[in-house]
Amino acid sequence: MKKLLDDPSIPDEQVLEIRDQLYALAEIIYEKWQQDKKAGKLPGRKPPELEDWYSRKNSIPSGR
């Protein structure tokens, strides 16, 4: 962690606190990503209501 912080003068206790805060932030970001993924808010994915429309559209016979 000290190598990543690029400051060997930071006390070990402060380094551990920074590490713990980074883990907490990563957990919040991951949980938000999971929520957005479930809600269809991520780029490149159709929103859930459009997925239903596309699946119904493709299930209708074309009559050819």
What would your notes on this structure say?
With 64 residues, the protein is an all-alpha fold. Helices cover 69% and strands 0% of the residues. It is built from 3 helices and no strands. The chain is rod-shaped, with a radius of gyration of 23 Å. The protein starts with a helix and ends in a 5-residue tail after the last helix.
Order of helices and strands: HHH
Helix segment tally: 3
Instruction: State which percent range the strand residues make up.
Output: under 5%
Overall mean pLDDT = 81
Structural class: mainly alpha
What is the alpha-carbon Rg in Å? 23 Å
Total E-strand runs:
0
Report how far apart the termini are.
65 Å
Largest sheet: none
What helical percentage do the residues reach? 55-70%
Identify the overall geometry: rod-shaped
Unreliable spans: none
Keywords, please?
64 residues, mainly alpha, 3 helices, 0% strand
Helices and strands in order:
Blueprint: H1 2-5, H2 12-39, H3 48-59
Quick summary:
With 64 residues, this protein is mostly helical. The chain has three helices and no strands.
